[in-house]
Inverse folding.
């Protein structure tokens, strides 16, 4: 048995498009993170960037189950004493519609240089239109 190492120039990278309207937040994020890492390819290697590009449209119409629309809270901290800010899913999606999906995807990628590099391969848009038509993205089923 020999380990196969694929060079970056030999990798054929595809573009996929995902319509997130009406789909569950976590389930969409899992599929996207898997494609970004390249886990859908036979020559997947954990330490290499072999994944594909993903374009997500209609991120503002993403669904959450149960009472999460009102109860799910996103936290951030300014770094100063008493600087903890909390915001519900409803308020976040009204203010910045792509944030919940981007956060979910980023949380499922590695927490290192590779993860930051992989996150640049996903493009999330709130509406139906996107500027990546020239790449001829394929529809990805979720």
């Amino acid at each position: 048995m020999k380990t196969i190492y694929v060079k970056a120039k030999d990798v054929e990278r595809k573009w996929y498009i995902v319509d997130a309207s009406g789909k569950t937040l976590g389930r969409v994020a899992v599929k996207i993170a898997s494609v970004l890492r390249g886990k859908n390819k036979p020559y997947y290697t954990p330490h290499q960037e072999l994944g594909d590009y993903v374009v997500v449209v209609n991120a503002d119409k993403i669904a959450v189950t149960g009472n999460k629309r009102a109860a799910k809270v996103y936290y951030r901290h300014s770094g100063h004493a008493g600087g903890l800010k909390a915001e519900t899913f409803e308020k976040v999606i009204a203010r910045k519609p792509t944030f919940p999906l981007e956060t979910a995807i980023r949380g499922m990628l590695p927490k290192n240089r590779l993860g930051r590099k992989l996150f640049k391969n996903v493009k999330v848009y709130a509406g139906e239109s996107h500027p990546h038509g020239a790449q001829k993205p394929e529809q990805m089923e979720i």
